[in-house]
Amino acid sequence: MIKFNGLKGVVLDIEGTTCPIDFVANELFPYAHQALPKFVAEHSQDEQLKELWDEVKQAMQIEPTKGAPKEIASYLQWLIKQDRKFSPLKELQGIIWQEGYGAGKLKAPLFDDVGKALNNWHQMGLKLAVYSSGSVAAQKLLYSHSSAGDLSKLFSNWFDTRLGSKLDQLSYSQLAKTMAIPADALLFISDAPEELNAAKKAGYQTCGSQRAGNKFIIDNNLFNVVTSFSSLELELGRPKITN
Fold this sequence. Notes:
The chain is α/β, with parallel strands linked by helices.
């Protein structure tokens, strides 16, 4: 067992941490890629999406890559293939996935140990948060339609790349401020060593998630590493006594 003490909250990555990377790469991305042309044709004039379409058009105008598509749907499909971290695309994907989840065509396959662990941590009184490159809307959909049932109610905070880069120490500092929890009372769990390093620099306690199929090998000389949340023992921080 790996023990973490003095905690008030846990911040979780998604891909490779609570959900297999393959689900995003082999199911979510292809689903959105295929649906984009029809979605753009049907919703390009929607007033509630105007700000997102404007951001996409602006990005197309300043796109530095030669040969990038000049049509909105094709451009967004091209960004998906590049795995580009573009916030408006993430939000549009979330809307498309909402239709898929609602129709029963999508369900998130969480790792078997995740549901039990999240419920236990929530019951302990730990505040749970998500920090993922996927949009907040997509995060909520994933946890609302998971193999462990609707776990979305367990989370108190949701963060995506509009907060800032997941490789930037300042993003984690801002996240802690938003949650009103000291950084050293937060545990960040991720499959990405660079994200763990950024969180560690911000003062977080950190733990690597080394799941089957993950892209990165996490150096256990630098970080605590687990292959299952069942190997974690978390303890709440004791409140400070003031006179």
